[in-house]
What we know:
The protein is of the alpha+beta class. Helices cover 23% and strands 35% of the residues. Strands 1-7-6-5-4-8-9-10 form an eight-stranded antiparallel barrel, surrounded by four helices.
Amino acid sequence: MNTSLPPLSLSILGVEPLDEFIREIADFVHHMIVTRPIHPDAKVEVEAKLGILRDRTSGQRLMLPVLVETILIPNEVDVRFESNMSLTQHKHFNTMLNDLKRISSQPSHPTSPLEYSHVKVLDSFYPSEDREKIRVTREEKNNTVIEITRKIRLGDLNIYSPKRAADWRVSVSLEVPVSHPVGSPTHVRRKDRICYSHEEFNIDLTQVYSNNNATPNAPPEVLHELEVEIARPGLLLSTAAKRGDPNVPELDRNAFDELIRSFVNNARILVKNANDGWHT
């Protein structure tokens, strides 16, 4: 009796069924892109940030009767997303990503190598006529202005991960270049960021020191955050424009969904590697 498993087809049709989870995120991001307000020279930013979904009433982590990660319908569950993690968790991801960078440079590694950069900047925030604040970003070392932008949040998609120590959120935003504001900033953030770049994605591990001018004598608030971001806004827009177009080659027609699939996979890998005790 032969007990070994023979090669199996992906399905009775010979193809793998559509991954509805990834397709839902791709549809969300694509909708945010095609319905965005038009601003000259604006960049579209797509990022997935790790954190905890908390019930607004109890303050406890969200509990839902589901067994696996689940996309929440926007505005249907009263939660807040808390991206701050502990210093211990920050060190854990720093060690993990540094090890991965070292291993990825070896010829036997199955993917392309990670690149690494360490950036220290100062973000000063100014009020604007709209709800969004204007951010002036300078290099910490020489105070050179890097960019001046107004960030417009287009939409968020919360993902609850009951089997993991952390949840995550996909955000789509517009970064609109503006002129330097007048007056004094309302608050300043110092960002000490380690950026690991891999193919079309940046993984940013950031320590944020925040000072509020309203309480100048208070000690700075220290936050630790981890996110993965699509690195090239131009590529994101060009692939979104060709999505599903029957007049372009199949590779171009499916490129947007492949980009989002890899983006989601990277976010899932990071969430899977979060330690128990997100804040301890």
